[in-house]
Amino acid sequence: MTRAAGSSPPSAKEWRLQLYLSEHDPGTTARVVLDTGDNLLECCARARRNPHDMAIPEVGDELAAGRALISLGQQLLRAAEGDITAAGALEESSPAPLWSSRE
User: Fold this and answer.
1) Three-state SS string across 60-90, please?
2) What is the DSSP code (8-state) at residue 8?
3) Beta pairing class for 27-35 and 40-48
4) Which residues of the chain fall short of a pLDDT of 70?
């Protein structure tokens, strides 16, 4: 792989992500915190069990955590879009989405 003349060498970064789960039957709350070293992003999400369904705590954990992580991803993409615009990138008439939901 070649680099453009004058470009800096590759570097490694470490971002720290913490995921907190709190269960209060019939609901679970997930809070995710991402520390990039430059910015701190936080998202929360909930999952709620139908009272007629069997109590399986892992399912609530997975749903709440997944929703919080999706929200964090969308927040990161919005931040990137803002940075792209701030850098002076030209707007296109119909930009390709940075992410699309398949839900």
Assistant:
1) HHHHHHHHHHHHHHHHHHHHHHHHHHHCCCC
2) P
3) antiparallel
4) 1-6, 91-103
